[in-house]
Amino acid sequence: MTLKQMRYTIAVAGYKSFNEAAKRLYVSQPSLTGAVQGLEEELGFLIFKRNRSGVELTAKGKEYLNRIQAIVEQVDELETAYHNEAKPTDYFSVSAQHYNFPVEILLRMIHEAGSHYRFFILETRTKEVIRNVAEGVSELGILYFSQRNKAVFLRELRIRGISFHPLTVCSPCVYMRKHHPLAGTGKIRMRELEPYPFVTFYQGEDSSNNFVEEIINFTQKSQIIYISDKSSGWHILKYTDAYSIGSGMLDSEWSDDVITVPLMDCDEMTIGWIQKKQAKLSEMAEYFLKTAAEVFDKA
Fold it and tell me: Across the chain, what does the average pLDDT equal?
């Protein structure tokens, strides 16, 4: 019993014809028929019943087919896995807070990558970004700190053996819908935002206010909406008077509905990347960081 005979049997059962199976497998019909008949002799039972309209499986043939299909599928998976491993594969993983620019960079990488790659972009909570880099899940992490949380933030990185490298320093902006009551204001002060719901990314019960993605301390606010993904946040901003605070970068797909307005009385944000200390960057990581610098130069 050979793998070739199994493949021939599966093909004949699928096409219900020796002639059609031979055509699809690019072999002669006598060769295929002989291989299947030889298998039947070896097994001691008929796999197919022949008739004028074609062939059909016998009861034992059906049982045999079920068994060999699993075997052939496993062999195919092994061949695919090891065939692909023999080819060079681009591998890169980045964990990030909820920014749009890492996705834009990854799109460029996809367009320029070869035929084999494994790219991971993991948008997640702040502490998870740090943990992923510390544990080697991601080569790079993207996050920010401000004067308010700088000491705690950098101490956490130091404990984890991680270094921080700035990409840009920016003044925070308020995100809100185009027809928000404060949308016509050139600049906004924190006290003007008091009546409106605040949208924030949920950081988990075990996280402190020093690791939130928004630069303000919002714990005393009466209306807070917690989210875990950007899309939910954009929809809430679009259809309510809620607001959020961030770097001012805006996904192009939402720019028709959501605007950004500078926030006056607030610290600046230092956005940067993190890596394990003394780790050598891969070519993919270097390309990512080079493109990130270009993105911020144009901003």
Answer: 88
